[in-house]
Input
Amino acid sequence: MEIIRVNKTIEEIDVTDQPSAVCVGKFDGLHRGHRLLLNETVREAENGREAAAVCFSLGAEALSTEEERIRMFEKAGIGRLIILPFSKEILSMEAEDFVRAFLIGRLKMAHLSVGSDFRFGRERKGDISLLEQLSGSEGFRLSVHDKLRLNGEEISSSLIKEKLKAGRIEEANAALGYEYGFSGGVIHGQALGRRLGFPTLNIPLPEGKLLPRYGVYLARTEVAGLKRFGILNIGTRPTVSREGKALLEVHLFDTDEELYGEQADVRLTAFLREEKHFLSVDELKKQVEEDIRTARERCLDKPASDRYDDTGFRKMEPGGDRMLEKIREILSEQLDLDPEEVVPEASFKDDLGIDSLDLFELVMALEQEYDFEIPAEDLAGLATVGDVIDYLKENGIGK
Output
């Protein structure tokens, strides 16, 4: 994927050699609604066009780092990414010039995908009505997408941020289409957790990325080939520190390996409790023991032999042949997967190479097919093909 970081003006962008299908937006977090624009842009690019996305630089409290966002754009199939700054030159462009000089003049735009609330140009005067006029006069096709709704609420980056700040992580994950989390190299800490009997991984928090409500979470972690559930604490640790600096610590279940220097990917799946100040370290230790018991109950809501393997990740029950065929059909159309690889026991991520955004595209297609909606709190547990089949069967869907 070609990445173009504009410093001041659009003149820094070379004119493309081929027509483009373009999507434009802030794209903070690349949530489920954004994914509709990306998918349509990539489909339009199949007709000899380049798939291009135009976004703006991330501000404070973003839903991803710039590196994470770039990886998601690339995974979605975007061929050219243009990152615009909030510069005086860009913000002062007239709306018509933004379309004619930039999108058409530089990108040779033949198709444009935007959300229904898209505004652009100086003083945000450009809107859908203007785009419809320019589409007719300039000869490009325009697709306008209404906001997706989840449990009666319009999905937006602002809504997701509100839910994260409130600790409503399951709802935030459902709206994002993937589990919110943090990645980084494991560093040395004060080793307090190890002295208390709960060794932790310490992971630096990236600048600019939104921190969820301080407290303790159930989390799933991948590090050095290990996949483990565990408890995550994010906050200032008021019982043992007066620095007031936010830290992220993860205690992994059923492992005591030394993992310093390894890259860890930590995903938040459930909020367990808010951050507290304890009167003593012994009181803190008792609470951590209780947190671990609660977390294990949350991730093992059914007997381990029934739904979970020995690492705590879900495994599959066979069955649901008709539903399996429907899932195969959707995935083969979406991602050009070999249907024979889509078997009940297949993990979406590890076996099929499907990221969370692609998974939620599958869920959305199934919701349309069977005329139902999966509640937000149920979405995070769908890790394999069989999880989806079991969910449909258990809820009487698709019979």
The chain has three domains: 2-147, 180-307, 321-393.
